[in-house]
Design brief:
Blueprint (H helix, E strand, L loop, with lengths): L14 H9 L7 E4 L4 E2 L6 H12 L33 H5 L2 E3 L4 E9 L18 E8 L1 E10 H6 L6 H23 L12 H4 L4 E7 L3 H13 L6 E5 L1 H15 L5 E5 L2 E6 L2 E5 L10 E7 L3 E13 L6 E14 L6 E6 L1
Parallel strand pairs: 3-13, 7-15, 8-11
Antiparallel strand pairs: 1-2, 1-3, 4-5, 6-14, 8-12, 9-10, 10-11, 12-15, 13-14
């Protein structure tokens, strides 16, 4: 679990320079990533990190191992070069949310919030103005960091075994991804101003408590219908924990009398379908009894606004160590939260 301290202040950020690092020549507000519609026009795909990994892997030596048929000779233990990350948790939700370029530190958009009703009038009736109302909404880009360091001694000592710097970079990249998936669901800028609001605090109109009972297909169908009432049949994604998904799958099999199949939705990701909505399990969705949640996200109105994609930079060498940080400037925005929905207090 990555704590809230991963979000740090950045002082006087030069927004234009940060934007140009990732999106040089790309208009602000252009959608560059939308997996549900098979769009991937990213010009920077963690370019330094991936290329660095590829280079160092080419240099990993292959150990020469020979069996010795003698009990009098002791051979050294050979450790596998692969380090098993027992803490790794996938971040499928992040892969499904569209990403759009953002110039500047503040996202600003206008929304039509009140449409005056039309009316039947009599012949020669007075034609009074029927004014609509618009509201400007803003959201601040947040700055997230993952900092790492490897001492010179560690690099020299472990060089025959693994590239220590590459391993730490991989781990810190994962930490940043896990932070964003967690906060996309649970972020609370009121309690922690340096982070952004997640779905727990974004969704307000269609939020229904299960009052410490199990999730039901009827409850899911009801909030799905409610989300469609406000915005048609946009491409929705259901998000929940593995236990709740298993309960819903059992209910589906009881209703339709066959084993539920999965469907490929984006980049090879498979998901259980409810009507035309894929349900994706997230390891960052609450698993606490009576506090589980089921989210419905409309990907046509929900997106990440990105000032700068994940980027690695080296820090000053103040002691015998290679120091670096990986940063991302972004914020999730839901321009019409009533097209999303949520079940809370699931047993």
């Amino acid at each position: 679990m990555v704590n809230n301290e991963s979000f740090g202040a950045i002082g006087d950020l030069d927004a234009d320079s940060a934007y140009e690092v990732t999106f040089k020549g790309v208009p602000s507000g252009k959608k560059f990533y939308d997996p549900m519609n098979k769009v991937d026009n990213r010009t920077i795909k963690s370019k330094y990190i991936e290329s660095y990994f590829e280079d160092v892997l080419k240099d990993v030596p292959v150990g020469l191992r020979k069996a010795v048929l003698s009990s009098g000779i002791t051979a050294p233990t050979i450790i596998d070069a692969d380090i098993i990350d027992s803490l790794r948790r996938e971040t499928p939700v992040l892969e499904l949310i569209p990403r759009r370029t953002q110039r500047g530190k503040t996202v600003s958009y206008n929304a039509l919030t009140t449409r005056s009703a039309s009316a039947f009038l009599g012949e020669g009736a007075s034609l009074n103005d029927q004014d609509d109302s618009y509201t400007n909404t803003t959201a601040s880009v947040k700055y997230s960091y993952s900092v790492g360091a490897v001492t010179g001694v560690a690099q020299a000592h472990e060089s025959h075994y693994i590239d220590a710097l590459a391993e730490v970079m991989r781990s810190k990249t994962v930490a940043l991804r896990e932070l964003h998936e967690q906060k996309f669901l649970t972020g609370d800028s009121t309690t922690t101003p340096l982070e952004y609001d997640g779905l727990d605090n974004i969704i307000t109109t269609n939020s229904t408590s299960m009052s410490s009972t199990a999730a039901t297909l009827d409850a899911v169908g009801t909030i799905l219908d409610s989300s469609r009432t406000y915005g048609g049949r946009g491409k929705k994604i259901g998000i929940t924990d593995y236990g709740t998904l298993r309960d819903l799958k059992a209910l589906m099999m009881q209703n339709v009398r066959y084993v539920m199949d999965t469907q490929e939705i984006a980049w090879g990701l498979k998901a259980v379908m409810y009507e035309d909505m894929p349900i994706v399990p997230s390891r960052f969705s609450s698993t606490t009894t009576n506090s589980k949640r089921f989210y419905i996200v409309d990907t046509e109105v929900t997106e990440y606004r990105v000032l700068q994609e994940p980027t690695m930079e080296k820090l000053a060498k103040t002691y015998d160590a290679e120091r670096f940080f990986i940063k991302e400037y972004s914020v999730p925005v839901c321009k019409q939260e009533n097209r999303c929905a949520m079940l809370t207090s699931i047993a």
